[in-house]
Amino acid sequence: MSNPVPDxxxxxxxxxxxxxxxxxxxxxDPLTFVNGQKVTDAGQWxxxxxxxxxxxxxxxxGVEPPPPxxxxxxxxxxxxxxxxxxxxxxxxxxxxxxDKSGPVMDWLVIRPRHxxxxxxxxxxxxxxGNHQLIPDExxxxxxxxxxxxxxxxxxxxRGTMCDPNSNSTMPVGMLLSAGYAVMTACxxxxxxxxxxxxxxxxxxxENFAYTGVFDLWGKRDEGRMDNPTALGAWAWALSRxxxxxxxxxxxxAGRNVVTGCSRLGKAALLAAARDERxxxxxxIQCGGGGATLAKRDFGENIATEMRMFSHWYCRAYKKxxxxxxxxxxxxxxxxxxAIAPRKVLIAGFDSPWFDTEGEFLACQAASPxxxxxxxxxxxxxxxxxxxxxxxxxxxxxxxxxTEGHGIADYDWLRLLKFAGIPEF
Length: 424
Ligand code: GCU
Description:
Elements: H1 42-61, E1 72-82, E2 87-95, E3 104-112, E4 119-126, H2 172-177, E5 181-186, H3 205-208, H4 230-246, E6 251-261, H5 263-274, E7 280-284, H6 302-308, H7 324-327, H8 332-337, E8 343-349, H9 356-366, H10 368-372, E9 396-401, H11 409-419
Parallel strand pairs: 4-5, 4-6, 6-7, 7-8, 8-9
Antiparallel strand pairs: 1-2, 2-3, 3-5
The structure holds alpha-D-glucopyranuronic acid (GCU).
């Protein structure tokens, strides 16, 4: 990391995979305000955290969308003896207008039937529809667009996440047995997520991505550099999910874990950074634009992100793409630090594109935020090998693994151990 930093990184629009070509960079101290003042105690951390969130709103994720004026939730279906009798499985529909017009979200909630007191909840957005969690003929299949099928329709296959051969699994029995409820909704209902090579006009990113809940926020001023983004919208939706959890008497919404994989891991990280009601955050394999450092030029970079996912980030972020190491005035360790003093476990994926070593370094650099709040910081261990859990601290942790890109049983188990398994 001793290479000099050029003004413009040559071929900055290509991903670098050569460790020798990583130029030097400096990371901002989480405990130093932009004006140079230092945070010296927990009391001052709130103001610095606010400053950090404002930087991310203005420069990367766009302004935070306002909470809805109203949120109407309705239990539309319930099975009291689901999963061989172990679970109560419910479906809730959510509207954001009193007259139930406009965008909706459908939440699937599965909770342990035999719990004698309110249970904590694990909450996440899914990619392909709630019906893929468990095989259950009554779970609604969203009638909507999907980026992964040529027909642009959600596949009607149920319970695919119960297939142990799948990259993303849902060991729902284990999670319920550990005393948690799980709840999920499909991210396409919030902001559909077209690929950058979409040719059909109405599905193009610049048109289609800003539908869904964006309809609540009025006409966009395209001249603005900090418009709300898809990642901001998904994070917003997670906060609404938490509010729904608060309306379910059998759930103790104060004890919650927000998770998600890849782009939905980025959303979970942003949600927990912005919304202090999230108690534990486990973003899984979230990589570039999530937990990994953008100044560290390895794998996915700001230029590839802005080219492929223009709707995930606001326009201001593009100004850093020619040389993040030199131009950026913030980095993702600050986003992680905005969760302090709450709990966050960064789950890495050992594929160069995701630069999980950058996630480990980001955790190291975020650690002072916990320490100033009187919590244990990041474990002082070397970069761990795959499946080595030595960097999982009590409040701030990290691990990485190989195998498929998705949330595997291994990740669910790490999540449970980190968040704690309650008595019930
Ligand atoms: C791409 C993208 C990543 C993202 C991933 C996903 O690989 O570059 O940033 O996390 O898609 O969401 O599957």
